[in-house]
Amino acid sequence: MLIENLRVALVHDWLVNFRGGERVLEAICEIFPKAQIFSLFYAPGKTSAMIERHRIHTSWLNRIPASRFFYPHLLPFFPTAIESFNLNGFDLVISSSHCVAKGIIPPPSALHLCYCHTPMRYAWDRSDDYFRSHLLKPLIAPFLNYLRMWDVTSSARVDHFIANSNWIAKRIEKYYRRSSEVIYPFVNLERYALHTGQREDYYLAVSAFTPYKRIDLAIRACRKLGRRLVIVGSGPEESFLKRLARGSAEFRGKLEPGELSRVYRGARALLFPGEEDFGITPLEAMASGTPVIAYGRGGATESITNGKTGLLFEEQTVDSLTEAIEDFEAMSFSPLDCRRRADQFSRQRFQERFETAVKRLLTQDRMVSFQGKASGLEPSETL
Prior knowledge:
The protein is globular. It has 15 helices and 13 strands. The chain has a 7-stranded parallel beta sheet, with helices on both faces. A 6-stranded parallel beta sheet has the order 10-9-8-11-12-13, with helices on both faces. It has helices spanning 20-31, 49-52, 67-70, 78-83, 127-131, 140-154, 166-176, 215-225, 238-245, 257-266, 281-287, 300-303, 318-329, 335-343, 347-375, and strands spanning 8-12, 36-39, 55-58, 92-97, 111-116, 160-163, 180-182, 203-206, 229-232, 249-251, 269-272, 292-295, 310-313. The two termini are 23 Å apart. Strand 1 (8-12), helix 1 (20-31) and strand 2 form a beta-alpha-beta unit. The longest helix has 29 residues, at 347-375. It folds into 2 domains: 3-186 and 347-382, Glycogen Phosphorylase B (Rossmann fold), CATH 3.40.50.2000; 189-343, Rossmann fold, CATH 3.40.50.
């Protein structure tokens, strides 16, 4: 069966904004223009025109009035809601998952591929950050036990995992005991122009203001060294970060793409002190010819060439970041090297690799099914 003739279901956790995960979904939508999308929540106008050209199905949670504004507090209902979708008739299910999308129940005859941004953060390594202000905080401990069991059990519904980095592939192996292949996400290279001229005298942080992003380290390190820091973004920690900065950093809020590109081009370096599953902002900076100073764990270790397109610091502390900034200032970095590195993470390359993987896995699945029928065994018995 040709890939163009398949009935394809795309499953995404929620469609209430347009960030890295939604950009990946958009690229997959281009590969499968006739696919239907299934998502817990959907806010029209908050994603992209490409995504919204597809038929979008939402869960019963989306019918709760104004649910898209407080959906994180409905997490206890997410597993049941994702299991409520009926995918009968689909040949291929592709889940784009960082929460519960991979737990959808596929038809017995369908192939289920999961592009995994990360095993569920809320269940494993970010529960303290996530539940700090949750409405159901007193009930969290027993719920987390259930959520972890469900997350592991539902991973068996996935036929093949594709991880967004080697870092995430290791976590898939650790939590699900499953192997995966790695296909990196991409940066919008057309949006960020290479700048080889004189830089302005400031460091840059671009991030959502949440605890694990560790923007506090960037503020403290630059204040300690007396360096100018420009911060782009917003989020629940904004008041705390502004109090911490005490006027020592410039907060620019959210910027339009054109202005953000200009800010990238002017910076001496991007500071990236959090531990990310992959991280697109370092690629945006490098696409602009700007090197990156990043914490040496997570996906940043796979995008940044240490000593050539940036520096990795060893400990998530002010002293370690401060030392890295001082080392950075004693070195020189080529904007061309930074751009060449970013060029390796293009949208076209992602789509080509993803489509090739889908075709290969579909062929393998058909071969296993054929062998099982020929031998009189179920497919699982031939493995």
